[in-house]
Amino acid sequence: MTATTPPLSTSAAADCVASLAIILLSRGAGYASGDSELRELAQHLHATLATQGQPILCVQPAFVDRFQPALPEALDLCAAAQTIVILPVMVPDEPSLRRWLHKLIMRWRAGRTSLIDRADSDQHRQRLIFAAPLVQTPQLADVLAATVQDALAQPHTQDVPAVVGDDDWEHDPKGWSIVPEHQHHVLWCTGPRCAAKGAVQLWPHLARTVRENPGLKKKVMLLQTSCQYPCNHGPLMIVYPGGQWYGPMDSNNMAPVLTQHVLHDQVSEDLCIQGPLTLVRQSS
């Protein structure tokens, strides 16, 4: 996965005086096709708006958590537009998350305004619109009803097959029944706030650190998590069984902190925000 995702459609900034950019905002998924599915939806939306004669700069996918680009990156990619509409396509709606996303957008705007001459800031101020949640869209029930009718009209090939014979489908593959032998679980937060601080971009670097170090690879299982809550310290890395919480993590301190903790039983005191500062040596 690349560090940034380019807009699906662009035009010269000089032609964007009255332009519109749309950010399709989704929750990150635990599967790789989540990115491609949102991109495909963005392409369809762009084509639909184009046929309606709507002047549009781009339709840009973005993710609240677990995937990239995060919302601040997507806003950067759409910055040439005069109007940006953030369109949430996630269910269910979480009012607390939406309030935080509003703050994130306000923080992005404040940072961008500081880069523009104050005298010109009002003249060039963008409209930033956060659309209503998907579940509050009046036409959503009509779309779902049409989908039900389409499913009923499809041939039986779409039906879930009956299980017959001796197929051991509940235990396939057998490897999924085996508990791994790793001694440490490393929980990497990819919740909304850590994602906005770069946690998703850092994940491949963390995975590569473990994969390329035989000692870490033998002892460490990496796990992505949703929000761990002390967001002001993010990006967060929590290591068990010791129970040490580290943050903020970056590309320079991840590898030495993890190596020092797992292979040398030493806590990085300057980055440990919670947990004991001494470790009990783990058996090899």
Describe this entry's structure for a reader.
- The chain is built from 9 helices and 9 strands.
- The chain has 284 residues and is an alpha/beta fold.
- Strand 7 (237-240) and strand 8 (244-246) form a beta hairpin.
- The radius of gyration is 23 Å and the shape is flat.
Tags for this entry?
284 residues, alpha/beta, five-stranded mixed sheet, four-stranded parallel sheet, 9 helices, 9 strands, 35% helix, disordered N terminus
In summary, what is this structure?
The protein has 284 residues and is α/β, with parallel strands linked by helices.
List the helices and strands and how they pair.
Blueprint: E1 20-26, H1 33-51, E2 58-63, H2 71-77, E3 83-88, H3 95-113, H4 118-121, E4 127-130, H5 140-153, E5 184-189, H6 192-196, H7 199-211, H8 214-219, E6 220-225, E7 237-240, E8 244-246, H9 254-264, E9 272-274
Parallel strand pairs: 1-2, 1-3, 3-4, 5-6
Antiparallel strand pairs: 5-7, 7-8, 8-9
Which consecutive residue ranges, at least 5 long each, have pLDDT under 50?
A: 1-17
Average pLDDT figure: 85
Instruction: For the record, give the distance between the C-alpha atoms at the N and C termini, rounded to a whole number.
Output: 34 Å
Task: Give, in order, the helices and strands.
Answer: EHEHEHHEHEHHHEEEHE
* Total count of strands: 9
Q: Which structural class fits the helix and strand makeup? A: alpha/beta
Q: Which range best describes the helical content: under 10%, 10-25%, 25-40%, 40-55%, 55-70% or over 70%?
A: 25-40%
Describe the main β-sheet briefly.
5 strands, mixed
Strand content: 15-25%
User: What gross morphology would you assign?
Assistant: flat
